[in-house]
């Protein structure tokens, strides 16, 4: 907001300006050459295009700047990749980030990023930008006029605006379930396909911020048709070695079973920020000043800075192929895209006049093409990039030794942070799969005689839950690293989506089963289901849906009223169904029903109040542990799991194939979190445990890793370890 006095100032200077024009001259400043402006005539600008005023670089103030270009063989090619990293919730909620609300928390407003980037791209067809998070982009898109949408389509078609990654968010890679990771990518890609066509399918994975990387991600990206992926965070010792050996870029060979079909070019970026000194967010760093009519021309020094940043990075990246990538951006950068693009235009122009390196606007796909064209051989890697640890280290190639004086910033805390949100996400994910299946089954049912592929709407049944889950996969969502009010917001999205899904599932099952009007009972874990607890007479139908691809037998627990008998009848066969009434310690009663469920299908049971004795559910207050074979183990063809009947805990695991048994002792313990200061005397140990980083508080002199405190034997637990012995 402008203060009142600033507004007044603005008006006053405009008046002055007008007065000068009326007088026929503009005085630029006391010290500068003044330029004569003929009243109503064409201004006579001095030709300053070719005057070398700063080093040997001819200046061209206000352009035209030459910003076209691409890789040149034999030169160091600097791919300038303008980007913004827009978290779909972290310190602020996704909506607060979009609107730019709550700036006291963080200055970030995604709507203006996309607004100004699009304007800046429209101004100069050489400029490029990549955009990643479709959760934000779709919101922006939905608010645009058809003319603006058409303009954006042109930018996409001519390669200026490229969607990278293209998921709903930039997902975490440790905490999400793989189905959800694929789903959130699908959701974003469906949007891109719908509005920009298949040609806009992202070619590069872009996971520059998540805290460690899974080889599944490489497999998934390859299967999504991408030919590269990039990320910024790897273990600091690994980085030290790879920087020295120029192996930060490689080919991932992530799947033994899928083989080379899922090999993918993989690049570890330098974090994901701008090179030091080249940030123009809120005009942070020095702009390029090149107008000889003004003071402080700095073109030479800015070019020198750029070239030395490029040469330094090239030592660790480009020894084989002559291409490096500058990730020109940071978290929520380009809220005003103009300082960025105006300065980058000038830099590219002057750097190329200087000639030591070749700079141009680029994207990760162009970069990958350049790497590919160089026809060099890359190292390979097959496994995960977990856990991720921050720190500083040096690698000595002569001894192959990594010297480290850190190592306490292990980003493993987020594997368990906000456990309740993690569980919430899993439950919602399972609901979404059921919801989607029932949407399709309903569609198939409706078009039974002439089955045709379902329309988009049927396929996306439950899309508000799909979107909520898309948000929740973000690397500050399910990871548990957002602020409390943001975590609450994720829960709201999941709940809203779940409510919608439950309603649509009830609708689908009504139509499919003909069982009458159905209500979904989401609170069975608290024995709450009014439809059954308030029911006292007549019949009610219970429909049970099994989303798994195999038949199963489950014991349903249905809360019922305080008195009266119940019969349970299979509504298809009219046979009695085995059931039992259990009196709960809380005073309520539960009807336990042995339900046989078909694969990806439903069963309907009729509950009859106080019916005939042949079907009557046994009424008992006794709880019995049913052990059909009297055995304390379960098994399949491969494994036998033995439980200790005294404790109900795992006792042994047998590998039936090789005939080996591992005896197990289960043992629950917890770690005390380090506050980071308990060993202040030993400098460097100041890392505290928290939502991101797990660091147990070890006693002075403990050999790390220190042991957890046992829950059972609190206090003494850290002196004994779990017992695992292999018996022949
Ligand atoms: C965000 O801003 C709104 C409006 O100013 C305010 O009501 C709300 O408390 C703020 N939220 C947080 C988490 O600061
Ligand atoms: C690798 O380390 C050695 C020894 O410190 C150093 O001489 C060499 O320049 C390093 N190479 C790179 C690419 O950093
Ligand atoms: C690529 O490199 C291989 C091995 O170095 C060589 O056999 C091949 O001819 C090269 N291909 C091109 C197109 O340069
Ligand atoms: C039952 O489930 C809901 C949502 O899944 C959860 O919020 C609630 O805490 C659960 N209740 C109990 C007693 O565990
Ligand atoms: C309740 O179900 C039983 C068993 O299927 C049936 O005999 C009876 O007619 C039903 N009663 C009503 C009111 O629907
Ligand atoms: C380990 O056990 C000792 C006592 O046996 C206790 O003093 C110490 O606090 C424990 N350490 C941790 C980290 O729990
Ligand atoms: C660990 O297993 C071995 C072999 O069965 C047994 O002798 C030992 O008592 C066990 N120790 C504990 C603490 O359970």
UniProtKB/TrEMBL annotation:
MF GO annotations: alpha-mannosidase activity; carbohydrate binding; metal ion binding
Region of interest: Disordered: 709-728
Cofactor needs: Zn(2+)
Signal peptide: 1-23
Biased segments, Polar residues type: 711-728
Domain of life: Eukaryota
InterPro entries named among the record's database cross-references: Gal_mutarotase_sf_dom (IPR011013), Glyco_hydro/deAcase_b/a-brl (IPR011330), Glyco_hydro_38_cen (IPR015341), Glyco_hydro_38_cen_sf (IPR037094), Glyco_hydro_38_N (IPR000602), Glyco_hydro_38_N_sf (IPR027291), Glyco_hydro_57/38_cen_sf (IPR028995), Glyco_hydro_b (IPR013780)
Residues annotated as domain Glycoside hydrolase family 38 central: 409-494
One Pfam entry name: Alpha-mann_mid
One GO-annotated biological process of the protein: mannose metabolic process
Keywords, ordered alphabetically: Glycosidase, Hydrolase, Metal-binding, Signal, Zinc
Name used for this protein in its record: Glycoside hydrolase family 38 central domain-containing protein
Origin species: Cymbomonas tetramitiformis
């Amino acid at each position: 907001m402008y203060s009142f006095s600033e507004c007044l100032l603005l008006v006053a200077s405009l008046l002055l300006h007008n007065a000068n024009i009326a007088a026929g001259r503009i005085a630029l400043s006391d010290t500068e050459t003044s330029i004569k402006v003929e009243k109503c005539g064409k201004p006579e600008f001095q030709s300053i295009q070719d005057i070398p005023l700063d080093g040997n670089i001819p200046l061209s103030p206000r352009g035209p700047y030459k910003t076209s270009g691409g890789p040149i063989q034999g030169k160091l090619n600097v791919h300038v990749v303008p980007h913004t990293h827009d978290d779909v919730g972290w310190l602020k909620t996704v909506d607060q980030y979009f609107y730019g609300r709550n700036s006291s928390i963080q200055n970030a407003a995604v709507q203006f990023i996309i607004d100004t980037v699009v304007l800046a791209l429209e101004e100069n067809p050489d400029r490029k930008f990549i955009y990643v998070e479709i959760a934000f982009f779709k919101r922006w898109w939905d608010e645009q006029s058809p003319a603006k949408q058409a303009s954006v389509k042109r930018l996409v078609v001519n390669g200026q605006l490229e969607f990278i990654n293209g998921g709903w968010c930039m997902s975490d890679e440790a905490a999400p379930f793989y189905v959800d990771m694929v789903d959130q990518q699908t959701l974003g890609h469906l949007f891109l396909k719908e509005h920009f066509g298949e040609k806009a399918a992202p070619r590069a994975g872009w996971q520059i911020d998540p805290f460690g990387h899974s080889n599944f991600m490489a497999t998934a990206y390859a299967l999504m048709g991408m030919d590269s992926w990039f990320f910024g965070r790897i273990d600091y010792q690994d980085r030290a070695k790879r920087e020295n050996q120029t192996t930060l870029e490689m080919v991932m060979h992530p799947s033994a079973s899928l083989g080379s079909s899922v090999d993918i070019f993989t690049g570890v970026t330098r974090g994901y920020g701008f090179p030091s000194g080249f940030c123009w967010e809120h005009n942070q760093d020095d702009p390029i000043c090149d107008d000889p009519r003004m003071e402080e021309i700095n073109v030479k020094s800015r070019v020198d800075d750029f070239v030395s940043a490029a040469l330094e990075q090239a030592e660790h990246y480009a020894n084989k192929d002559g291409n490096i990538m500058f990730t020109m951006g940071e978290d929520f950068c380009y809220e005003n895209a103009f300082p960025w693009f105006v300065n980058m235009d000038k830099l590219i122009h002057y750097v190329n006049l200087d000639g030591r390196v070749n700079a141009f606007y680029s994207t990760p796909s162009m970069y990958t093409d350049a790497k590919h064209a160089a026809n060099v051989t890359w190292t390979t890697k097959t496994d995960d990039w977990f856990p991720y640890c921050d720190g500083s280290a040096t690698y000595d190639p002569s001894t192959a030794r990594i010297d480290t004086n850190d190592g306490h910033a292990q980003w493993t805390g987020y594997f368990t942070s906000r456990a309740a949100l993690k569980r919430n996400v899993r439950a919602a994910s399972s609901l979404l799969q059921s919801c989607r299946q029932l949407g399709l089954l309903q569609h198939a049912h409706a078009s039974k005689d002439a089955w045709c592929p379902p329309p988009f709407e049927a396929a996306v049944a439950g899309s508000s839950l799909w979107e909520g889950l898309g948000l929740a996969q973000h690397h500050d969502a399910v990871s548990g690293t957002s602020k409390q009010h943001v975590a609450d917001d994720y829960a709201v999205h999941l709940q809203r989506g779940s409510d919608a899904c439950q309603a649509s599932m009830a609708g689908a099952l009504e139509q499919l089963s003909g069982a009458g009007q159905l209500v979904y009972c989401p609170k069975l874990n608290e024995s709450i289901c009014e439809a059954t607890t308030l029911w006292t007479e007549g019949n009610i139908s219970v429909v049970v849906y099994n989303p798994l691809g195999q038949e199963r037998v489950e014991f349903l627990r249905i809360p019922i009223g305080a008195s009266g008998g119940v019969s349970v009848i299979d509504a298809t066969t009219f046979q009695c169904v085995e059931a039992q009434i259990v009196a709960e310690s809380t005073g309520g009663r539960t009807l336990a029903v042995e339900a046989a469920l078909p694969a990806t299908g439903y069963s309907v049971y009729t509950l009859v109040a106080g019916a005939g004795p042949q079907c009557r559910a046994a009424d008992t207050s006794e709880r019995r542990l049913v052990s059909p074979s009297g055995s304390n183990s379960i098994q399949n063809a491969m494994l036998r799991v033995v439980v200790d009947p005294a404790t109900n805990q795992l006792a042994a695991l047998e590998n039936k194939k090789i005939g080996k048994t591992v005896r197990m002792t289960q043992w629950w313990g917890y770690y005390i979190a380090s506050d980071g200061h308990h060993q202040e005397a030993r400098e460097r140990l100041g890392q505290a445990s928290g939502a991101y980083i797990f660091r147990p508080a070890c006693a002075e002199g403990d050999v790390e890793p220190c042991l957890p405190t046992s829950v059972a034997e609190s206090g003494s637990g850290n002196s004994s370890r779990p017992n695992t012995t292999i018996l022949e």
